[in-house]
Amino acid sequence: LLESNKEILLKLGQLAFQQLENGNAVFYEDDLRECGISVTEASRSGVCTEIFKQETAWRKKIFSFVHLSFQEYLAALHVLDSFTHNKFDALGSFLAFEPSESSEPSELSLHDLHEKAIDKALESKNGHLDLFLRFLLGLSLDSNQSLLQGLLKQTGSNSESIRKTVEYIKELDDEDHSPERCINLLHCLSELGDDSLEKEVQQYLSSGEEISPAHCSALAYMLLNSEKVLDELDVSKYNTSDRGAQETGPVVKHCRKAVLSGCSLTGESCEIVASALQSVSSPLRELDLSCNNLRDSGVEPLCAALKSPNCKLQTLDLSSNNLGDSGVEPLCAALKSPNCKLQTLDLSSNNLGDSGVEPLCAALKSPNCKLQTLDLSTNNLGDSGVEPLCAALSKLHTLRLGECNLTEGCCDALASVLRSHHSELRELELRDNHLQDSGVRVLSAGLEDPHCKLQRLGLSGCGVTQRGCASLASALRSNPSHLRELDLSYNHPGDSGGLEDPSCKPETLLVDHGGEIRTKPGLRKYACQLTLDPNTVNRRLSLSEGDRKMTQGRERQPYPDHPERFEHWPQVLCREGLSGRCYWEAEREGVE
Fold first, then answer.
1. Which residues pair with 487 in a beta bridge?
2. Segments forming the whole domain that contains residue 75
3. How far is CA 154 from CA 1, 78, 158, 513, 519, in A?
4. Which helix (H) or strand (E) holds 68?
5. How far apart are CA 508 and CA 511, in angstroms?
6. Where would you tag: which of 330, 519, 529, 541 has the fewest CB atoms within 10 A of its CB?
7. Which segments within 228-387 are labelled E, that is strand?
8. What is the pLDDT of residue 205?
9. More confident residue, 92 or 21
10. What is the reported pLDDT for 99?
11. Range list of H helices, 307-371
């Protein structure tokens, strides 16, 4: 069969290779003629009609292989046939030499061909040579050479070239290539019968040792080939570098929840994640990209993915990504898309100001927006930012506005939300805002309204005293049916203003870590006085001013031996044990 169709198969291989090099999947009659293929011959040949298809568009005949894999396979066949017959001119720029290379094409070994092909494939940003490379390496194996002896020239054993190719792939620096290209290299190793990296990964995972980026690529390869949908991929569970964590990115297309927090994701990494979100079969429902400093450039491909009808993402954490007001705009546009299915969005710690609220309000008011939980904590929204936001909250179940520089000035707008019979709000988090008793009194007017459905209210660290607690107690007596949890920790509630009364006490009432200092604004409410521990201080450090001042010098201090003393590094611990929220200031002098 191979010998009888050898001529047409090799011509098709030439066509496949030329068009693959140019990135073409569709070609014309002139392209066929250039490779010596007659259109009439192609339409009558049984082989052609099985792997080749013809259509008419714009009054011109166009041709393509029935599947891209046919084109890539035949292209690999052409390269190997040209190489074994020393037809180096047919390979054109594929075997282009660097000026420093002294070997003539006729002196190239099979390993040299592999090396050129690997380098070419790695240069491709879209991976259009990935499958071609795997076919080329697989066809080079002695076992496959014998199967194709009616088609390809037999060259004897290739085992030494295969061994060198395996070593070359293993020695490539993962730092220079995208995760998807690295995973394709592992597919190549599999084609060549080498699974050593996979075995090493198993050993590293069981030992707890740090995993290199190369082994993370192998881990990703193993997970992708397992044919199982992972419940969760959490890169923080692997002892590896940021680059290693990035190598696992392609696995997101095979998991329900992906945690890629704090691993310095690049724009390219975001493109990989966005591609996974748009995959028809993607099971991804939860995605944590927090603490990656994505900014505008990183978030844009994700927003495009959220508009895809294939995207099924419901929970997205973008906290601590330095998005700013401009970075939120494309996200708001995505929320208005009828295809966007997001229900939970975390935008905390993103340098948002009140100017970022306008597009957010427009998104929340959109009939297409399905958002139920929104976290805007630790953004400088201020009262002026929250007031217009309150007009767009009718569909939200949970709103978090902790540490947003709010005062009593926004409480009337928030209370109006609580009173609205259209409001679905069940949880409101306002921790670490200086609302004080006056603001809580206004909020209480909303709580006592019969339309209020709020089940949890967070007022931790809001400067509330016994007076504010009395306002809350009065509101809960008037409307005791809904509120289940009230957080008043880090305030100065005194005797809780009657909140302990069974007639108004919620199921969960938090009043711990109280005290008069909690009425101070800002971080000073968490201030603590620390003294340094002489049993831990390094001998290059001297303590003074009641163990509150530390000075570093060259002379060693005559401190007695102690098991807790720092012997190598100039360090010292404080005497006081710290837990919960603490704040202290240190003044440094004489250090550049």
1. 458, 510
2. 6-98+105-171
3. 18, 15, 10, 82, 87
4. helix 68-84
5. 10
6. 529
7. 230-234, 255-259, 286-288, 315-317, 344-346, 373-375
8. 60
9. 21
10. 41
11. 324-335, 357-365
Q: CA-to-CA distance for 491 and 304, rounded, in angstroms? A: 44
542 sits in which H/E element: strand 541-544
Cα–Cα distance measured from residue 61 to residue 445, given in angstroms and rounded to the nearest whole number: 75
- The count of other CB atoms within 10 Å of the CB of residue 317 is 21
Dihedral class, residue 432 (left if φ above 0, else alpha if ψ from -120 to 50, else beta): left
Helix (H) or strand (E) holding 457, with range, is strand 456-458
One-letter amino acid at 106 equals S
Categorize the per-residue pLDDT at 271 as very low, low, confident or very high, splitting at 50, 70 and 90.
Answer: confident
Q: Write out pLDDT tens, residues 396-408.
A: 999 999 999 999 9
Say what angle helices 411-419 and 436-447 make with each other, to 10 degrees: 10
Domain-ending residue, one of 521, 536, 555: 521
Separation of alpha carbons 549 and 353, rounded Å: 39
Structure tokens at 296: 């505008």
> pTM (2 decimals)?
0.72
Pairing of strands 398-400, 373-375: parallel
Mapping DSSP onto H, E and C, the string for 429-455 reads: ECCCCCCHHHHHHHHHHHHCCCCCCCC
Q: Is residue 306 part of a domain?
A: no
Residue ranges of alpha helices (H) inside 124-178 are 130-139, 142-147, 159-171
Q: Is the pLDDT of residue 105 over 60?
A: no
Average pLDDT over residues 101-121: 78
Confidence of residue 138 (pLDDT cuts 50, 70, 90): very high
Three-class SS state of 263: coil
Distance CA 456, CA 485 (A): 5
* Structural domain contains residue 370: no
For the chain, how many structural domains are there in total? 2
Q: CA 101, CA 228: separation in Å to the nearest integer?
A: 46
Range scoring the smallest mean pLDDT among 32-36, 92-96, 283-287, 338-342: 92-96
Which single residue is written with the structure tokens 């163990």? 547
Residue labelled with tokens 């390094």 = 538
Find the helix or strand (DSSP H, E) in which 55 lies: strand 52-57
Chosen domain end from 171, 192, 212: 171
